Predict the structure of HAD family hydrolase.
Amino acid sequence: MKRENVTHLLATDLDGTLVGEKELTSLLFDYYKERPYNVQLVYVTGRHYASTMELIKEEELPMPSILISDVGTEMYDLNDPELHERWKKTLEEKWNPAEISRIVQSCSGLTPQSIPSVHRLSYFAESDEAVEEVKRKLSGSSVPYKLIFSSGRDVDILPPNAGKGEALSFLLREKGWEKANVLVAGDSGNDRDMITLGYPAVVVGNCQKELKQLPDHPMIFRAQKHCAGGIHEAWEHFFEKTPVKNSI
């Protein structure tokens, strides 16, 4: 497989991170156009594929090099269609959605979301207690899983090796981009595992409480500005003033 020589890469969530304040999003991309290097774009979102494509069109966003959708369970590269199949194969090994669904049905306070993904079970939670109940019951079973609770209501149950962080790590290895200047950006709990990968990362100023509770770390920049304005702040902090190497 041919590997591109990528020097700078933005791996960003969409809603509430890259998208949310249109003027700041435009300013960020204008800023990137002025750089002496190209910035490779990777969108890492909780939206499913069709919903993401609609958002890209509505917000007039540039198309990314790679799209990681469905909370890190789907991966698309128009120049490498097999990438999706390689990632899918890794997720199939320990995924038992029928057993997980059976366990969740015995819990109260969870309403299924209609999500067109075979590697993701999603629910709306009525309370924190409902989330704790399903965690207890899943942990007491032998079924492998990863549960992500975000934005105070969204529960995603995934294969144990899925999630935004696992997907991004897989992508960087597959493409040979581990040594690029990578900035990771997010605003909610489903971004946590990629924010804490060890690459330079930004928690945008409008982040949800679950990211405000992250321990301080030199690789995690807490932006003052919201959405794409926070990405802009972090980019200058890491790559324009004091360039750093990632710690993984």
Summary: The first helix runs from residue 22 to 33.
